[in-house]
């Protein structure tokens, strides 16, 4: 079952989130884990909604909040045209990272209180969302976090010392948005932290797990998705 819910921002106003819940009888009587899904630069589009629906089918309560609401609510575009890419990059350029984290914390608090959530809560993000998933591991009480090809992680390596719960990162070795030098810097800085697990996907480009995308690689996506679900089962219960 899927629906839209309202989320109150910490500084006033509200925004929406796409909520997918397990079918009746799928979870336990006390509720199960929740997962906060963090959007790419294309908004809460079909790709994000499908991810939420897929998680709900596996027994998780999944919530994907609209993080572009401060610029333009309801962004729902694809990666199929230049015009949409231009719009996506404009939104990315205007995105306030710190306010985005606060909006995710507000969303996390709402998710924890939903009737169907009786256990721990994790987060998974893609692209911009991968960066935010890393920062949520650094700045929030999320129980487990997964980032797919997060951008600009090299700008936040000093925050890794704040991580208190498990974090998994899926990294594409040919990521056009993360130069080789930055990849090496990230790998070197994070290898000392036992709560962080990194996987390199050799030969893959950015967004290798985005179904329908130019660089989609089913084998790599399936592997990353399986590792993600095993990770959540282990750390969320």
Automatic annotation (TrEMBL):
> What does the UniProt keyword field contain?
Hydrolase
Q: For this UniProt entry, which segments traverse the membrane?
A: none
Which Gene Ontology molecular-function terms are recorded? hydrolase activity
What EC number(s) has UniProt assigned to this enzyme?
3.1.-.-
The answer, when asked if Hydrolase is one of the entry's keywords, is yes
Top-level enzyme category: hydrolase
Q: Which residues form a coiled coil?
A: none
Keyword field contains Hydrolase:
yes
* One Pfam family it belongs to: DLH
Q: Enumerate the SUPFAM superfamilies for this protein.
A: alpha/beta-Hydrolases
- Domain Dienelactone hydrolase spans what residues? 16-235
Q: Which InterPro entries match?
A: AB_hydrolase_fold, Dienelactn_hydro, Dienelactone_hydrolase-like
Q: What is this protein called?
A: Dienelactone hydrolase family protein
């Amino acid at each position: 079952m899927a629906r839209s819910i309202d989320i109150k921002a910490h500084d006033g106003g509200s925004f929406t989130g796409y909520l997918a819940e397990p079918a009746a009888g799928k979870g336990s009587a006390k509720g199960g884990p929740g997962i906060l899904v963090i959007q790419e630069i294309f908004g809460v589009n079909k790709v994000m909604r499908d991810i939420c629906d897929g998680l709900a089918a596996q027994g998780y309560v999944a919530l994907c909040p609209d993080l572009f609401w401060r610029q333009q609510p309801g962004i729902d575009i694809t990666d199929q045209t230049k015009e949409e890419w231009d719009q996506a990059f404009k939104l990315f350029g205007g995105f306030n990272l710190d306010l985005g984290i606060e909006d995710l914390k507000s969303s996390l608090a709402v998710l924890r209180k939903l009737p169907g959530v009786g256990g721990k809560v994790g987060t998974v993000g893609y692209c911009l969302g991968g960066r935010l998933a890393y920062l949520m591991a650094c700045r929030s009480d999320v129980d487990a976090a997964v980032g797919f090809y997060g951008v600009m992680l090299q700008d936040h390596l000093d925050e890794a010392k704040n991580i208190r719960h498990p974090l998994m990162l899926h990294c594409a070795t040919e990521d056009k948005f993360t130069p080789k030098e930055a990849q090496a810097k990230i790998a070197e800085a994070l290898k000392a932290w036992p709560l962080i697990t990194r996987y390199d996907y050799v030969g893959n480009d950015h967004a290798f797990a985005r179904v329908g995308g130019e660089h989609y690689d089913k084998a790599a996506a399936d592997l990353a998705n399986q590792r993600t679900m095993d990770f959540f089962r282990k750390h969320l219960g």
